[in-house]
């Protein structure tokens, strides 16, 4: 019996290595070295952060048997505020907001793997400004609801994939603070999925700590400013410059297919403010460039927008 168990474990390990090798070979063909390194960094961080919980999960799986190990998700919910803060992995942000790991999901078999950390924003109680507190509570509640819906949908899709044996699938969801200043707080939710190929989507959430409100792109500019044209023109210039300097970079601009070309950002374009206070515009994979270019970002220097920024 013991020999059978060892042989099964060795066989599983061998198949896992084969799948990882296939996935790595595909990504090397489709992504630049820089994008591959960035993607691998995200994956490694997620795996490192969950290593302890994964070991505990595997012990539980072994105790309940192989069949249950294949069918069951390991769910580690927080059942009290004390547990939530014990699981917290990120420090106090701006003394107003905390990002805590609310619960974790893990699953692994020969063809599927999920490593999901669901984080929530917790608004600290402050008394100096009742309006600010009300806005802060509303902003964090709205963001938490969006995260819940998104992760629930991704997990449901993953479970269907497992249940109906639709082939290889990997799902990694984690979050991290991008910017923490006295003025702004931004965190990023990263969602990586892999089937025939891997792709990542990043979501950014920014709160103006001076008001407690969730920040929109238009909130950064004086009323009536044509910030969309200014930013779009700068991005087009940068696309053309980068393609001229590096043949490996391709953007959809001035091509034979005008319908696919990048024309302009919108008020809903993904963005965040970096630690220098500069605006960073984010395009998801395949949005303004081929998928192998990965997620594309453009930092807009302060001097470009200094006449229209608030």
Task: Describe this protein with a few key phrases.
310 residues, alpha+beta, Heat Shock Protein 90, Actin, Chain A, domain 4, 10 strands, disordered N terminus
Structure description:
This protein has eight helices and ten strands. It has helices at residues 2-30, 33-49, 51-64, 66-71, 81-86, 130-163, 227-245, 302-305; strands spanning 74-77, 97-108, 112-123, 169-180, 184-194, 198-208, 213-214, 271-273, 279-283, 296-300. It has two domains: 2-215, Heat Shock Protein 90, CATH 3.30.565.40; 218-305, Actin, Chain A, domain 4. The longest helix has 34 residues, at 130-163. The strands form two sheets. A seven-stranded mixed β-sheet has the order 1-2-3-4-5-6-7, sandwiched between helices. A three-stranded antiparallel β-sheet has the order 8-9-10. It starts with a helix and ends in a 5-residue tail after the last helix. The protein is α+β, with helices and mostly antiparallel strands.
């Amino acid at each position: 019996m013991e020999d059978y168990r060892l042989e099964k474990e060795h066989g599983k390990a061998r198949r896992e290595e084969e799948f990882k090798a296939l996935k790595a070979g595909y990504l090397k063909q489709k992504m630049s070295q820089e994008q591959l390194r960035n993607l691998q960094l995200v994956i490694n961080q997620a795996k490192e952060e969950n290593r302890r919980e994964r070991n505990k999960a595997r012990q539980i799986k072994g105790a309940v048997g192989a069949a249950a190990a294949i069918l069951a998700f390991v769910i580690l919910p927080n059942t009290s505020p004390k547990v939530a803060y014990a699981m917290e992995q990120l420090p106090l942000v701006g003394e107003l907001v905390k990002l805590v790991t609310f619960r974790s999901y893990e699953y692994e078999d020969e063809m599927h793997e999920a490593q999901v950390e669901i984080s929530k924003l917790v608004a600290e109680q402050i008394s100096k400004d009742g309006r600010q507190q009300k806005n802060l509570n509303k902003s964090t509640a709205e963001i938490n609801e969006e995260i819940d819906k998104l992760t629930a949908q991704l997990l449901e899709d993953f479970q269907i994939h497992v249940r109906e044996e639709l082939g290889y699938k990997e799902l990694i969801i984690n979050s991290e603070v991008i910017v923490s200043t006295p003025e702004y707080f931004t965190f990023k939710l990263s969602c990586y999925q892999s089937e025939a190929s891997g792709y990542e989507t990043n979501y950014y959430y920014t709160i103006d700590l001076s008001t407690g409100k969730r920040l929109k792109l238009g909130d950064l500019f004086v009323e009536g400013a044509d910030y969309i044209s200014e930013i779009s023109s700068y991005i087009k210039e940068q696309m053309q410059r980068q393609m001229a300097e590096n043949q490996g970079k391709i953007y959809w601009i001035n091509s034979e297919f005008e319908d696919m070309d990048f024309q302009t950002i919108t008020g809903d374009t993904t963005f965040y403010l970096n630690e220098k206070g500069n605006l960073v515009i984010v395009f998801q994979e395949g949005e303004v460039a081929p998928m192998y270019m990965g997620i594309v970002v453009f930092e807009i220097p302060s001097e470009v927008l200094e006449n229209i920024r608030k």
